[in-house]
Amino acid sequence: MSLPPGFLDELRTRTSLGQVIGRKVMWDQRKSNQAKGDLWAPCPFHQEKTASFHVDDRKGFYYCFGCHAKGDAISFVKDTENVGFMEAVEILAREAGMQMPARDPEARVKADRRSQLAEVLEQAVQYFRLQLKTAQGGPARDYLDRRGLNEAAQDRWGIGFAPDTRHGLLSHFKDKGIAEDLVVASGLAIKPDDGGAAYDRFRGRIIFPIRDARGRAISLGGRALDPNARAKYLNGPETELFDKGRALYNFRNAREAAGKGQPLIVAEGYMDVIALSEAGFEATVAPLGTAITEDQLRLMWRIAPEPVIALDGDTAGLRAAMRLIDIALPLIEAGQSLRFAILPEGLDPDDLIKAQGAGAMRKLVEGASPMVTLLWRRETEGRIFDSPERRAALDRDLRAVIGRIGDPSIRDHYRAEIARLRRELFAPRRAARPRGSARSRFLPPAPAMAETRGTLLASAGKGAIEEVLREAVILATLITHPDLIETFESALERLEMATDDHRDLQRLILSHAHDPAPDLRARIERDAGPHLIEKLFSLNHVRIAPSLRRADDRDLAAMCLAEELAKLDAARGARREVADAEEDISALADEGLTWRLSEAAKAREAAARGKGEDKGLFDRADNGVMLAREEKEALEALLRQIDDAKSQPKPE
Hints:
Number of strands: 15
Radius of gyration: 34 Å
Oligomer: single chain
Number of domains: 4
Shape: globular
Helix content: 40-55%
Distance between the termini: 108 Å
Largest sheet: 5 strands, mixed
Strand order of the largest sheet: 12-11-13-14-15
Strand content: 5-15%
Number of helices: 30
């Protein structure tokens, strides 16, 4: 069976050699640089302990410095799977989602036709380049000169000009004996459906050749010189050679430049690519008249692990960035994502470079934002979150978006970063201290007396153990009742755990929040080992919790979770208020104030004990809410006494 020209090139382009070989070897992390596709491992073809087997993922070749084995993805599959050439091709094509050519006698005819179409396109490129140098090409040359593209640059990019005539190219091909149907099939001419005469597709336009990974012309793009033209840019149609959703402008040159260490930049169009490349950013590509597709994303990742999407800062550019996020989220992997460089509004890359120099563009690329930043911006920009319902709607939307991430580890990190951004958005902001306050009137503040340091204000940390135990009950309850996670997910995300173990458990619970399997405990033990679970459930405080003693009572578990979360929130809020109050009175501490504070502390402790009526931490489901309210009331009383202390004389 013969394969059509270009099939193997496309297969190699769409296949990651690192991924193919990575299934058979363990990469040496000390020697490998995965970001640059430079991978090392012990050779799979001979026994060795050192990493002498080298893979250049970008070029698609491997070589062993020990046994001298070498080849590409096809030869590797052949040798490791013990299959023939065509079987190896079929294996890789299936993994890459490519349809194998039909095994029929017409395959050779189709291959010959593709070769003919490629030759027709190459001749068209040469024809249009000659037209650019004629008198008719004067306006086009003037435009290119204004854009800073001299004759040498025009030759480098194969830029041409299509005169504004209906049959210029067709007449040229007719004189050369090339059949009209080939010109139409290549996308260079249009044949009306009503049977009328064919005519040139590109007229009155500057021409840009579109080439594949081998450098062959597979289509053309044209920019109109007439400002009133219906389409400013026009690409060739889908043909046997050209699939615009699976091609990138300047792919071949960008791949070579990225292999030398340049960052891969994704611009919007031909002129952006050319301007950036001429300014030194040679690893630049652009989609071809469509929004970036999944196949184009995979092509980009074959060149670089983190392409920088450089888009105009206008509404259309931002909208394109937001659409791309939805395409990329299910595909991102460890070390494989996107970054975004949003240009100043009204400027394209060429404008920015001309106005501020290549350094400004380089700074923009180096400071490109990670995808999670754009995701957060999309979900929050222009929205007001002044009610619990609106904040809940944001939580719902964020959960849905993050849930689309396929990689569990990345989903976990996204959830953590979104939780951090959410805390920043909703964190209470302290009111500015008014002028003339106690702190500003007494500088520097006098140190508090020893007796004052022993009061409630200075010893707020004494409740830390109690808070850790509350955290333990919350975590254990959620692990025992995973169906409650969705209800309490937002509260759990916002909770600042006091210990590393609790932070690890919090992260693991959230990472499995939307898993279909109910056995959360087993999943956590699988991910982190049994020690975290054993340590948590061995706590006596956890074992006696009603939500654990009566594990079959879901409603009781929900009530216990609400209670413990309310207690934690009240205790930590009170501690923050106490810290603020301590700052205010640090310059006023004396025996009288110390006495009043100690009395207030006793009052609070009495309230916390429930006035002797509390029969245990969990005996009444509403007891925690009552204590939280009493703690708040005691704190308010304390603060009132502080205000009184500032204005009353010390008792004799």
